[in-house]
Amino acid sequence: MRHFTSVNDVKDLDGFVQKALALKKSPFAHKHLGENRTLGLLFFNSSLRTRMSTQKAAANLGMNTMVMNVTQDSWQIEIEDGVVMDGGKAEHIREAAAVLGQYCDILGVRSFPALRDRKTDYGEKIIKAFIQHSGVPIISLESATLHPLQSFADLVTISEFKKSPKPKVVLSWAPHINALPQAVSNSFSQWMTHADVDFSIVQPKGFELSDQFTKGAKIYYDQEEAFEGADFVYVKNWSSYKNYGEVGNYPKWMIDQSKLANTNQARVMHCLPVRRNVVIADEVLDSKSAIVIHQAANRVFSAQAVLKEMLENL
Ligand code: CP
């Protein structure tokens, strides 16, 4: 593994899940692997889980970590090539990435989409520029279109809670007040269609994800029909891919207990943060069905498995 930006960077998915679970059992077993190695974490956007879990994963492996909130702490970074830089942006990504590559052995980058222009967002300029110019392995901490560390943790969580070899997993659209990226949902779909699960997606018409990430998934437009017999219901809002960035006003798609009645006592998942009683009702989040904290805990071991693999290949 040179970079980690999608499921395609993982050769053996089941083996990788087992590696994360082994690290969960013995988090400090490879404490010397990261000695004298530095991880740089760059955030163009806010984070709680990704920031703290990746730092903890690095600490478990004995690495140093440096964290920077790019938009607040550093120079504003120009992304476009060939521009006359006579505006507010003082540093080009070509130099910024190359310099950070001198200080760090591995870099993690978080950069959300602007949700104004689909072609620009799906072009993934920032993560690609870091891969091109830093000279070190790059980990996506959530890009414009994918969130692989989250999806890996989700797959680890499903493997821990599944009651049958091939569980039924349903990704359900849910309401939100803001336009959110498709990254978590694209990524979850991409990982589930590569994993040994029976995978479906349910959303209102017009909220279909890009088919580059959903090949092999069953598609529904009715939650009751989709949830029948489900072992896992993964809840997430995403803005429209088709009418790019449209929010959608479907408050009845919120997940409450009544929605789970015909599932196979489904476990409810969400990447967090979650807006209570908008996306998921209190009665679900506060019940034993919800495994969202378990998911968040597994973010440490998914990140640790990725870092370990990269450190072993430096
Ligand atoms: N799920 C997730 O990535 O959380 P943060 O945005 O807090 O990092």
UniProtKB/TrEMBL annotation:
SUPFAM superfamilies tied to this protein: Aspartate/ornithine carbamoyltransferase (SSF53671)
Chain segments annotated as transmembrane: none
Pathway the protein takes part in: Amino-acid biosynthesis; L-arginine biosynthesis
Subunit and interaction comment: Homotrimer.
Record has Transferase as a keyword: yes
Keyword entries, A-Z: Amino-acid biosynthesis, Arginine biosynthesis, Transferase
Domain Aspartate/ornithine carbamoyltransferase carbamoyl-P binding: residue ranges: 2-160
Membership in a protein family: Belongs to the aspartate/ornithine carbamoyltransferase superfamily. SOTCase family.
Binding-site residues for carbamoyl phosphate, renumbered to this chain: 47-50, 75, 110, 147-150, 271-272, 299
NCBIfam families, per the entry: PRK04523.1
Native source organism of the sequence: Marinoscillum luteum
InterPro entries associated with the record: ArgF'-like, Asp/Orn_carbamoyltranf_P-bd, Asp/Orn_carbamoylTrfase, Asp/Orn_carbamoylTrfase_sf, Asp_carbamoyltransf_Asp/Orn-bd
Catalytic reaction(s) noted: N(2)-succinyl-L-ornithine + carbamoyl phosphate = N(2)-succinyl-L-citrulline + phosphate + H(+)
Keyword Lyase appears in the UniProt entry: no
Enzyme class: transferase
The gene coding this protein: argF'
Entry EC no(s): 2.1.3.11
Superkingdom: Bacteria
Protein name, per record: N-succinylornithine carbamoyltransferase
Residues annotated to bind N(2)-succinyl-L-ornithine: 142, 176, 236, 275
GO molecular function, one term: N-acetylornithine carbamoyltransferase activity
Domain Aspartate/ornithine carbamoyltransferase Asp/Orn-binding, chain residue ranges per copy: 184-308
